[in-house]
Write a structure and sequence with these properties.
The structure is a homodimer.
Chain A lengths: L2 E5 L4 H12 L3 E8 L6 H12 L4 E6 L37 H16 L3 E3 L15 H14 L1 H5 L5 E3 L7 H10 L24 H13 L9
Parallel strand pairs in A: 1-2, 1-4, 2-3, 4-5
C-alpha cells in the first residue's frame, strides 16, 4: 500500500483530508506541528484522531514559531471575535501565520522523503477562508514544483511528489458531508482559535462561526462542545 | 536602509553571505535554526558572528527535526570521515537533511514577512558540495517563485521577495578570499559536522576537508582549531 503524509492539525479540515487519503487507499503517516499556537489542545486531539482514523503512524514536530511571531496565533495579538462570516473574506486575517503553509509543507516533505512517501495531503481550502495566501491553488502548485527540485528523489528521478488538497474548493458544509460519509467523528476535532484548557470552543472566533454554519448547512448535528 | 534576512548557521559560507549582504547595503536580520543538529556548538558561534559582523538582530528558532530524522546530522547515523574531496561529489551525502533548505527558507520567509524584509540571503553553494539537491540554482529559483505566492505581500502585490545566493558558484577558496576582503574573522566560524564540545573541529569529515583545502588554495592561514 503506498504511503501518504498528511498534515494533521486536529481541526475539521485536516481530519477530513486524512479520511479522504485513507479512502483513496493510502497508508497514512500523520504529521502534527507544535508551533507554539495558542490553541495547543488541538494537538491532543490530533493524536486521538490519528488513532481513531487508523493512521499507520503519527509524529509531532516541535517548532517555536513564537521566535518569529507576526500572527494572532503565535504572538500576543487578540483573536478576532463575533465577525460575521460575510466580513471574514476581505484582506489577510490577523490569524495568518507568516509563511506557515510553506513551513508546514516543508516539514511534511522532509517526513515524506524519510518514510518513502510521495503523496502529501493538506486540508487547505480557499472558499470559506479566502484571505490566506498560502491556501490558494497557485501556491500549492508552486510547492509541488519546488518539492521535486528540493529532494534527493527529485535529483535522482526515482519518484514524483504530489501535493493533494482534496478540500480545496469545497464549502465547509460539503467538507462535513464528505467526512460524515467516510465515518469521521467530528466530536474529536477542534477548530476554535481560542479554546479553553479543556478544549471547549469559544463559539465566537471566525473558525468557530464558519464551522457552526457548516454543520447547519450540511444538516448535520453540531457535536462541538462550546464554552 | 532596506532589511535583509540571512540564514546564519555559524559556518564559513553563511558567515560570508552575511558579510556580502552587509556590503550590499542591507540592514541584516540573522536567523539561526536549532534543528537538533549534532554540531550544536555552531549555534553559539552564530550568535558571536551576528554580533561581530554587526547584524541588527539575531533570532534562533528551535525546530526538532529529530522527530523526522533521515540524516547523519539529525539521526544516529555516523558522519563520514577521511573521504578525499574527489569522492564527495557523487550521489546524495548522508549528511543531507531531507527538505532542509525548503524548511529553513520557509522560516526565513516567515521572519522576513514579519520584519518587513524582501531580501533573503542563503550561503548555498553548488561547487564544492554538489550532492545536495536543495543547493541547486533551479531549487532556489523555484523557492523565489513560491515565496511570492505564499505570502500576504505576494497577494497584496506590495513587494517582491528575492532569494540571494551570492556564493552559489564560488569555490571554497573564492568564498574565503571574498570574506577576507570584507573583513570576516573566520576563527569565529565552525564548519565541522562532528566537533567536540568546546568547538574544536574533527579535521576529518567532508566539511573539514573542504574547508582546509579552501584556506590552502586561497593562500590564507587556516584559523581553525582542530582536535
Amino acid at each position: 500500500m503506498p504511503k501518504a503524509v498528511i498534515l494533521l492539525s486536529g481541526g475539521l479540515d485536516s481530519t477530513t483530508a486524512l479520511a479522504v487519503a485513507k479512502s483513496r487507499g493510502f497508508e497514512v503517516c500523520a504529521l502534527s506541528v507544535d508551533y507554539g499556537q495558542r490553541h495547543r489542545v488541538e494537538l491532543e486531539r490530533a493524536a486521538l484522531i490519528a488513532t481513531a482514523l487508523g493512521a499507520a503512524e503519527h509524529r509531532t514536530v516541535k517548532l517555536d514559531l513564537r521566535a518569529i511571531g507576526g500572527s494572532a496565533l503565535t504572538a500576543d495579538v487578540a483573536v478576532p471575535k463575533d465577525r460575521s462570516p460575510d466580513d471574514m473574506g476581505h484582506g489577510i486575517p490577523v490569524t495568518y501565520v507568516p509563511a506557515r503553509n510553506t513551513i508546514l509543507l516543508g516539514l511534511a516533505l522532509g517526513y515524506a522523503e524519510t518514510v518513502g512517501a510521495f503523496d502529501i495531503f493538506i486540508g487547505a481550502n480557499v472558499l470559506d477562508y479566502s484571505g490566506y495566501p498560502d491556501c490558494r491553488p497557485e501556491f500549492l502548485t508552486a510547492f509541488e514544483v519546488l518539492a521535486n527540485l528540493a529532494t534527493a528523489v527529485g535529483v535522482e528521478g526515482t519518484g514524483k511528489f504530489r501535493i493533494h488538497s482534496p478540500l480545496l474548493k469545497l464549502t465547509k458544509a460539503e467538507i462535513i458531508a464528505e467526512g460524515v460519509k467516510l465515518g469521521v467523528d467530528y466530536a474529536l476535532t477542534l477548530s476554535c482559535y481560542d479554546p479553553d484548557a479543556t478544549g471547549r470552543a469559544c463559539g465566537r472566533c471566525d473558525s468557530c462561526q464558519l464551522r457552526r454554519k457548516g454543520f447547519a448547512e450540511a444538516g448535520v448535528p453540531d457535536p462541538t462542545v462550546y464554552q
